[in-house]
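protien #1 (seq + structre)
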Amino acid sequence: MQKDSFDRVISFLLGASWGIILFGALALFAILFHFGFTIAFLLTFLYIIVSLFLVLVLDALHVNKERLKEAKKQTELLQKILENK
């Protein structure tokens, strides 16, 4: 199955965002650890929550694109059925 450019971009962004979340959380925690464990943990947790929300937005874009594609297929089939009657 061939992917169009939109799917490729979304897949790339999803993969890159997971990498940014992991390495960013580790780097943020390491930088903020000098200010105390609690502050570092809370800010890293906040960073992860915001980043995961952005991943959900990207995934929602992908799901809506698939839903639109399926709706177009169903509309085409329904039009063929209507023409045959």
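ok now protien #2
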Amino acid sequence: MPRKRKRVRPARAGGVQRGTGRELAGRQLFLFNALPPECQVYCFSFLSDVEKCRVALVCQGWSQLMRTSRLWQQADFACLGTFWGWEGALLSGARDHERWKERVENYAYHLMSRGASLLVLRASFDLGDEQTNWTQFLLRFLEGVNCRDLEELELNWTLNPLEPLPTNRQPSMTQVGMTKAGQVTNFQTLLERLGPVSPGLRQASLPFDWSERSVQLLTGFQQLKCLELKNFWVFKGVCPSSMHRLTRALPNLKRLILQVLIPVRDLEVTYTLESTSLEFLDVSQSRGLVFNLLNLPQLKELKIRKTIRGIVLNTQTQLDIQSRWPCLYTLLQEGVPNLRTLNHHQLLPSWQREADGDLAEVLAQACYCIQHSDTWLL
């Protein structure tokens, strides 16, 4: 005789089911709403911003919890461009551009209305855009949220994710220069505002113009541990004293990534790096960056690459220039005693006394001196 199937009672609204204590224990129910509010908030903190907004629609209680400032610790304006599949400087129509700006405004209002307490800020705005004035937008946003605990800043202040198709002819070099100058001024205004409200900033990634004012403002972030400075403009030179001053003025800096494109007019300029705390240095994306002194006693890993720019020089001019450039191997021997890895090559304990075959090959790809660069192209 077939066994009669037991009828299962439907669940009540709110996730509570009927039944005896033994039956409930057998079903291994977990009553989320029975948790303290602090525990519920902690669970919700693992959700993305979009998921949190969906959770807020479930019930009035969860909607109230979603207004907890600790749940909104990340402001990622850069990700809004992915709504249209943006993965770079994508040109778009004016309509898409306006939709993107509206989305940015709504996102900012959403975070400010919840009293967001930010740990991370990511944004990509052209601060030279006079029509939209993204500088004032960011300043208003920083006033509307709590940035006291901000630890990570990723800011591309030279580009909008979605740019409308150009309607007029290409701008002249004079117009481009004026636009770049406006971007730098607005960038400095933003850094000046961030300094007092985000004293604990630990990680930053941004284009950098290397002007004295920008260096002064950046050195105000004394807690920086990881810093990535990208190239700002190919025609913008870098003053050696500015680079030297920046690295010396950040006492807690552990990781530094530099993308510096040295203009041809500064071919003979060399640079100094000094830091008592730096452990990782990557200048492999730089072009024409030649060092005359490295004083990095704690450095353990270095990434550096020589770039041949195709500059044609006669033999005498080439020798005159290269004779002023010290050998990278000598600089490492004298100023980087704790180096362990060079361009992913694990150094032997005896690397300071003699360069083995592998190290010699790495130096040939990284050093600009006469010994390691015998080509007539620089």
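The longest helix spans residues 173-197.
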